[in-house]
Amino acid sequence: MKTILHKANTRGHLNFGWLDANYSFSFGQYYDPTRIHFGALRVLNDDIVKGGFGFGTHPHDNMEIVTIPLEGALEHKDSTGGHGVIKKYDVQVMSAGSGIKHSEFNHSKTEDANTLQIWVLPAKMNITPRYDQKTYLPEGRQDKFQTVVAPDDANALSLNQDTWFSLGNFSKGFETGYQLHKEGNGVYAFLLSGDATVAETKMEHRDGLGISGTPSFQIKANENSELLLIEVPMNIDSSL
């Protein structure tokens, strides 16, 4: 088993006033040659968007984009006709494919919104763009994993990639294991809150941990903890 720990305070950080962003991987003005991607996981941004502000209409292509609101809500519009509000406990997926334009604004004029924006490199290029979202209530992840993105689960959203996203809320002292779904995949664990030991590595609030070269690993919650696991292929074209 191989692991790489990204402590929360080593992430890239930029504050634009309306946007306070933390970057687990190189993005925009933040560049670290040692943090370009983890397998097919290309971007994990932890954003706080001020009330009344957001991202104006901009293009994407050939990227799989997942948005997970942690607090507050975002209003989304895109060129496929997709339009909606995503809030805490929602998950949104967008396949940019051959090209899409979209905007995301804080749905509140006064309250901050904290969201995760995650990009995964696609399995196939230039597919027809698509958008979807779904609500996943926290009762479904108490002391167990709740699959929110998967290629083979009717209850989960899907991406143009063999990737699985799992959320878990674990009580202090709870122990469990994670079995990877596909040989050759790795997992990027992101601790949303709490204190946990994942794959024999101690993690704290907003730490990230890349795990590869193993079919499974163990997890123990040292305190009440919230954990996101992103399972992705490791053998990808890093020039994408």
CATH superfamily of the largest domain: Jelly Rolls
Weakly predicted, low-confidence segments: none
Write down the overall geometry: globular
CATH topology of the largest domain: Jelly Rolls
What percent of the residues sit in helical stretches (DSSP H or I)?
Answer: under 10%
What is the CATH C level class of the largest domain, in words?
Mainly Beta
Largest sheet: 7 strands, antiparallel
Helix-strand pattern, N to C? EEEEEEEEEEEEEEEEEEEEE
Record field, number of beta strands: 21
Q: Walk across the major sheet and give the strand order.
A: 2-3-4-11-6-9-12
Number of helices: 0
User: How far do the termini sit from each other?
Assistant: 26 Å
Reported CATH architecture of the largest domain: Sandwich
Strand content: over 45%
Count of separate structural domains: 2
What integer value in Å does the Rg equal? 17 Å
Overall SS class? mainly beta
Name the average pLDDT: 95
